[in-house]
From TrEMBL:
Annotated ranges, domain REM-1: 372-449
Gene, per the UniProt record: trip10b
All copies of domain F-BAR, residue ranges: 1-263
GO molecular function: lipid binding
Keyword terms: Cell membrane, Coiled coil, Cytoplasm, Cytoskeleton, Endocytosis, Lipid-binding, Lysosome, Membrane, SH3 domain
Protein known as: Thyroid hormone receptor interactor 10
Region (Disordered): 315-337
Domain SH3: from-to ranges: 490-549
Annotated Gene Ontology cellular component terms: cell cortex; cytoskeleton; lysosome; plasma membrane
One of the GO biological process terms: signal transduction
């Protein structure tokens, strides 16, 4: 069944039907565009939501070690990926549905307009042929009536007795002329009628069916393209469903990774101090003449802890004047004042008195031994530092072995390189190894002092992979042989002495006003910097005594 054969007389309905199909396609394109806007807004809101609840460091960075916190961050990551898949759906709908259907719709409109114009033109040609046939018919009718009148007039004249032969001949001649003209009009009318019938037959049996069949083919192609758009509407979802399923599986996996026992254990490890609970307060019987106990009880003693920021807290520092230039270039406070009261002493003197009160007491220049931490936390930090030093030491030993092998290759084949060129690098590596060994022994001593046990598994593994090391010396000889107190740190810059300093305390170095020094270590918050003189002497000086350039 075709439109051209079965609907040859339904031009208006065909026109309305094709226009309705184009309107439907256009409505579907608008529908998909609105769906795309919804998807993009949804993805944007999901990304903003994920960004809003994603941790940004600080306290949240510490909490992220717990499995339930990390699981929530994993969920936010999966949600962000899910938002990306919604954007993929929007992009595919835009390119594969909206853009394609819009282009096809434009082509269909142009094609339909051409077919309708072709139909109207054929209809106009048939109407012109019909008018021409009608005109010839009317002319034939007119001429034939006039011919009939001329014949009747000739017969009447011929029957009249008074008519002359000339009148009769004239009437007959006029009737013959009118009859001839009527016959010509008849032939012309017959020819136009035949032409009209031929054109009408061609219009209704050839042209109109062809045009309507083209419109039918156009509409069917539109339906196929629209159905493809319907299919792609669902197919875009199916394409991303596996990835979305992975995102949801990731959320499920994150939920399964949470462990309440593990989080509790981690919380204990992070905050366990190792301190012993205070003992019972003894009963003091004043009736027996016992003197009142002092204020330093066991309970108070457990609360005497040094904060993370040093010996002074912020409230204590506010009581001290912020004086940079001391009035005296000596080690002690000016005008014979003592350091027993900090009310009017500069901050640098207070730090000096707390850090190096006596020459005979060996205290580290900074809190690198983590003595400001509770016992348990101190042992953990020391063990972490030991592990890091072991890794660095193993790396340097591996490099030393590699340099030895390279030197052997150069010795066996001088064309590959000069063995002497490796000496500076080997010397530097050896010095670094010596420094790390001394640092390792120092941290192990601190760990032993804190009551911890060194994790020797990493050390044993490192020693099994490297060249043999002479361990026959004891710890004291080790410091002497490896120049433990020699430091090979890189300089951090230059500084100028603002005042003279005698360097009488242990670990300090003297300097003269205006002397140019090399800065080896900046102020770590305790008011001291480590410098090196041109003579090679190295030690700590008050930070307020120098100007860093």
């Amino acid at each position: 069944m075709t439109w051209g054969r079965d609907l040859w007389d339904q031009y208006e309905n065909i026109e309305k039907h094709t226009q309705s199909g184009l309107d439907l396609t256009e409505r579907y394109v608008k529908f998909v565009k609105e769906r795309v806007d919804i998807e993009l807004n949804y993805a944007k809101q999901l990304r903003n939501l994920s960004k809003k609840y994603t941790r940004r460091g600080g306290k949240e960075e510490l909490d992220s070690k717990f499995s339930n916190h990390q699981a929530f961050q994993d969920i936010l990551t999966e949600l962000n990926d899910y938002a990306g898949q919604r954007e993929v759906v929007a992009e595919k709908l835009t390119t594969m549905v909206c853009a394609e259907l819009t282009r096809h719709l434009h082509e269909l409109k142009i094609e339909r307009k051409g077919h309708l114009a072709e139909y109207k033109k054929a209809q106009q040609n048939l109407e012109l042929s019909f008018k021409c046939m009608e005109n010839s018919k009317k002319k034939f009718e007119k001429e034939w009536r006039e011919a009939e009148k001329a014949i009747q007039q000739a017969e009447r004249i011929e029957q009249e007795s008074a008519s002359t032969k000339a009148d009769v001949d004239k009437a007959k001649q006029l009737s013959h002329l009118k009859t001839h003209i009527a016959d010509e009009c008849k032939n012309d009318y017959a020819a136009n009628l035949q032409k009209y019938n031929t054109e009408q037959k061609g219009l209704y049996y050839i042209e109109i069916p062809s045009i309507f069949n083209k419109l039918q083919d156009m509409d069917e192609r539109r339906v196929v393209k629209l159905a493809e758009g319907y299919r792609l509407f669902a197919e875009t979802e199916k394409v991303v469903m596996p990835i979305i399923a992975k995102c949801l599986d990731g959320i499920n996996t994150a939920s399964s990774k949470t462990s309440e026992k593990q989080d509790s254990q981690l919380f204990i490890e992070l905050h366990k101090t190792g301190l012993v609970p205070p003992a019972d307060v003894e009963f003091e019987d004043y009736s027996q003449g016992i003197k009142p106990a002092g204020s330093d009880t066991a309970v108070n003693q457990t609360k005497l802890r040094i904060g993370k920021k040093g010996f002074f807290n912020k409230k204590r520092q506010k009581l001290l004047p912020n004086t940079r230039k001391p009035p005296d270039s000596g080690y002690g406070p000016p005008n014979g004042q003592t350091l027993s009261k900090f009310g009017h002493a500069p901050l640098s003197y207070c730090l000096l008195s707390l850090r190096r009160p006596l020459k005979s007491v060996k205290t580290p220049p900074s809190l690198e031994d983590f003595s400001h931490l509770p016992p348990e936390q101190r042992r953990k930090r020391l063990q972490q530092s030991i592990d890091e030093i072991n890794k660095e030491l193993q790396k340097e030993k591996d490099q030393s072995v590699a340099l030895e092998k390279m030197k052997e290759v150069y010795v066996s084949n001088s064309q590959l390189g000069d063995p002497n060129s490796l000496e500076p690098q080997m010397t530097q590596t050896c010095q670094t190894i010596h420094t790390l060994k001394g640092k390792l022994a120092k941290y192990e001593a601190w760990l032993s002092e804190a009551g911890g046990e060194t994790n020797t598994s990493a050390i044993n593994n490192n020693q099994s992979r490297t060249v043999p090391v002479n361990t026959s010396h004891n710890q004291d000889n080790f410091y002497e042989d490896d120049d433990f107190y020699e430091d090979f740190d890189d300089p951090l810059g230059q500084c100028t002495a603002l005042y003279s300093f005698d360097g009488s305390g242990e670990g300090t170095v003297c300097m003269q006003e205006g002397e140019l020094l090399t800065l080896m270590e900046k102020d770590q918050g305790d008011g001291w910097v480590r410098v090196r003189r041109r003579t090679g002497d190295e030690g700590y000086v008050p930070a307020s005594y120098v100007k860093i350039s």
